[in-house]
Design a protein that fits this description.
A hairpin with a 5-residue loop joins strand 11 and strand 12. The chain contains three helices and 19 strands. The chain starts with a helix and ends in a 7-residue tail after the last strand. The relative contact order is 0.19. The protein is 31% helix and 37% strand.
């Protein structure tokens, strides 16, 4: 006979056994469920796109004046006055200095007197010629009359009188020729005197030193009272008055390496960066030497840069970006995507199934951040950028698009 207390103990035991069985089954079920698959590695990729690329050459260069000269005096003398100093802007034809040369003034007076004397000699010679021509007319008329009488009425006039008249006629004719020669000589002497006077006047005009072109005075050598030698011979120790530089246009001299010489073209725009001013300027390839310097293996190339406000100064350093090659709509990838080994270029591409593909490519123009791909890829393909040392071809990855700079 089962008592109430015994029945309760049996129920509690059954419940406990049921709970233990349920817990045991749960643990078995948990142990038997399959594990989650590992996450795919995330890889930065860029899309192959078409861009306008250009291959540029960045070279440090120095500004020089468009033209620069030392201004010398044509004549020797003392500096009477000088009207310019360092930094003055001058115009073409502007008087820079005036010299004092008293002996030239005296020489000019003598030359002018010689000219007046030659003119008076011409007047005198022309008067002599006029008198000779008048005397010749009288002598010739007398001879003509006597000769006519001799022909019509022989014996009426003595032959001696006819011969005397003929002699006077010929003598007066010779006198005309001599006076004409004297008048011509006097005329030539006048030309000589005038030429000498013009020469002295020209030398006297050289006492005013003028600017041969628009520019800036970059140095002053002389002061009032200084003795300036004639600067016409290389063996003299002549001192210049000032140094004049044209700075409204500057020359930027660029040494182009031998490998890039064939790509340099006249008229090409050049971007010029001046670090001292934190500004960029525009210029153009104006000229080049068309030959290489045998020591540096570079070609002398000049870029003209407009400088109307004289912000740029000769001697400043600048970086010139010289465009050598352009390509519009080129198939391009970031530089970081290209691997170069043993002269061959390859990229790691990512297929539609997420697998890494090792692709050989042929490259063209290269900028600072982009490379043209001539073959091996198509537009919108995905290529791995950055470190690929931990990746292997055939590996499945999770591609993640990263932004890429556009080359220029």
């Amino acid at each position: 006979m089962i008592t109430t207390s015994s029945f309760d103990r049996l129920v509690r035991g059954a419940l406990l056994a049921s709970l233990l069985l349920t817990a045991s089954c749960g643990r078995v079920a948990e142990t038997a469920s399959p594990p989650d698959p590992p996450a795919l590695p995330s890889v930065g990729v860029a899309e192959v796109t078409r861009q306008d690329l250009s291959h540029n050459l960045d070279i440090a260069a120095e500004f020089r004046p468009y033209q620069e000269i030392e201004v010398y005096s044509k004549v020797a003398g003392f500096v009477k006055s000088i009207s310019v100093d360092y930094g003055d802007r001058v115009r073409q034809g502007q008087v820079l200095a005036v010299l004092e040369v008293p002996e030239l003034v005296d020489e000019l007076e003598r030359a002018a007197a010689s000219t007046r004397q030659a003119e008076e000699e011409i007047t005198a010679a022309q008067g002599e010629l006029t008198r000779a021509e008048s005397a010749h007319k009288v002598a010739h008329l007398e001879y003509t009359r006597l000769a006519g009488v001799m022909d019509t009425r022989p014996g009426l006039v003595a032959q001696q009188d006819v011969d005397g008249a003929l002699g006077k006629d010929q003598e007066s004719e010779a006198k005309i020729a001599a006076d004409k020669a004297a008048a011509a000589a006097a005329q030539q002497q006048l030309q000589v005197a005038k030429a000498n006077e013009r020469k002295v006047r020209t030398l006297l005009a050289y006492t005013q030193i003028t600017a041969p072109f628009h520019g800036v005075i970059t140095k002053r050598y002389a002061d009032p009272g200084a003795m300036i030698q004639q600067g016409t011979a290389s063996h003299t120790q002549a001192m210049p008055l000032v140094r004049l530089a044209q700075c409204d246009v500057l020359r930027l001299v660029i040494p182009v390496p031998e490998s890039e010489v064939p790509r340099v073209k006249l008229g090409e725009p050049v971007e010029v960066s001046v670090a001292a001013l934190h500004r960029n300027f525009r210029g153009r390839v104006a000229r080049f030497s068309s030959q290489l310097d045998l020591e540096t293996r570079t070609m002398h190339t000049e870029v003209d840069v407009s400088n109307p406000d004289l912000i740029l100064m000769p001697g400043m350093y600048a970086t010139a970006r010289l465009p050598l090659e352009r390509k519009a709509g080129a198939l391009a990838v970031p530089v970081q995507a290209i691997s170069r080994e043993e002269g061959k270029a390859t990229v790691y591409g990512v297929g539609t199934d997420g697998k890494i593909l090792d692709r050989p490519v042929q490259i063209g123009i290269e900028t600072s951040d982009m490379v043209e791909v001539l073959s091996g890829l198509q537009e919108k393909d995905l290529v791995v950028v950055g470190d690929r040392s931990k990746l292997k071809p055939g590996e499945v990855v999770q591609p993640k698009i990263v932004s890429a700079k556009k080359g220029n």
